[in-house]
Structure formats: C-alpha cells, structure tokens
Amino acid sequence: MGLQTTFHAPHGGADFLGWRKARNGATEIVYDDGVARRMVWRVAGPGDEARIVEALRVSVASLRVVPTLYDELKKRAIAIERIGA
C-alpha cells in the first residue's frame, strides 16, 4: 500500500496539504488555502516519507495549518526551505 500524498482540512476549510517528488528527486511540500495563499517548501536532505505524511496529517486537522506544520516538522527533525509562494 502506498503513502497518502494529499490531505484536505476536515473542518470545512479549503486548506490543502500535499507532498510530491520534484523532477530532480527532491521531496516538496505544498500548501494551498483555496483562496489566496499557495506555499511550497523543499525538504532538505532525504525525507522520510512516512514521517512527512504523519506531520501533514496532524497539521491539516489543525485550525492553524501552517504554524502547526512548522511545529510538526520541527518535532520530527525534518528541515525545510521555502521555495515558492
């Protein structure tokens, strides 16, 4: 069974989180609020996809998705750099 790659907020918001592999093989995390904000981060180093999935799952269930995402990635020692807006 594969890992889930996209998540939508269960609390009625349009918040979307997902991860993908870029052409160069890097793992990227994408956030979109469904209205005006789209953000993309590159995972520094080889990302453990299972840990990333768990961080995204917890974050998207929060009312404050982006701050929670930062906290969850930090807890799991997953370094990111913002590459897109």
- DSSP strand content: 25-35%
Number of helices, where a helix is a run of at least 4 consecutive DSSP H or I residues: 2
The parts where pLDDT drops under 50 for at least 5 residues are none
- What is the quaternary state of this protein? single chain
- Write down the overall geometry: globular
Task: Describe what this molecule looks like in 3D.
By secondary structure, the protein is α+β, with helices and mostly antiparallel strands. The protein has one domain. Helix content is 27%, strand content 31%. The chain contains two helices and five strands; from the N terminus they run E-E-E-E-H-H-E. The chain has helices spanning 49-60, 65-75, and strands at 6-8, 16-21, 27-32, 38-43, 80-84. Strands 1-2-3-4-5 form a five-stranded antiparallel sheet, covered by helices on one side. The longest helix is centred in the middle third of the chain and has 12 residues, at 49-60.
Short description:
With 85 residues, this protein is an alpha+beta fold. The protein has helices at 49-60, 65-75, and strands spanning 6-8, 16-21, 27-32, 38-43, 80-84. It contains two helices and five strands; from the N terminus they run ββββααβ.
